[in-house]
Specification:
Blueprint: H1 6-14, H2 21-33, H3 38-46, H4 54-66, E1 70-73, E2 81-84, E3 90-95, E4 101-105, H5 110-120, E5 130-133, H6 136-141
Parallel strand pairs: 3-5
Antiparallel strand pairs: 1-2, 3-4
Helix pairs in contact: 2-3, 2-4, 3-4
């Protein structure tokens, strides 16, 4: 196991939970893979620690999300995609044709977020935002 992550250890202790190798491996996998589904994270963890099942991965991802260490977004109809929280907040553009995912800075939708807050009292969670459409390459081919 890699050196224990101090943010993870502290967050677990605050909740009366203990640090486990599996929790650290899942957090490490999320960070290494950058954007990954639970199945991809499971494959990464299983390569380092045989016997870790997919249920453990899902439970650990839920816990890490509650602790604010990872976040997720839905980039397709399948499983959510996880990435480390707070590293570089961004939103996703997903092409429905070629399925290319492009990261964009949150400033791209700041005007919309401000308008929603002002007019509707709604605080947009940009880190979970994925916008679907057609990329320029696919539109050019049509």
């Amino acid at each position: 196991m890699a050196k224990a992550d101090t943010a993870l250890v502290g967050a677990l202790r605050e909740r009366g939970l203990r640090m486990t190798a599996q929790r650290q491996l899942v957090l490490d996998a999320v960070r290494e893979l950058d954007h990954a589904t639970p199945e991809q994270i499971h494959a990464e963890v299983a390569g380092k620690a045989a016997g870790v099942n997919i249920t453990t991965i899902y439970r650990t991802l839920d816990l890490l999300s509650e602790l604010g260490l990872v976040t997720h977004t839905h980039l397709s109809h399948g499983a959510p995609t996880y990435h480390a929280a707070g590293v570089h907040p961004h939103l996703h553009f997903v092409c429905r044709d070629c399925e290319t995912v492009t990261e964009l800075p949150v400033e791209t939708v700041q005007e919309l977020a401000g308008k929603l807050r002002e007019e509707r009292g709604f605080d947009l969670d940009v880190e979970h935002l994925a916008l679907f459409g057609q990329c320029g390459d696919c539109r050019g081919r049509a």
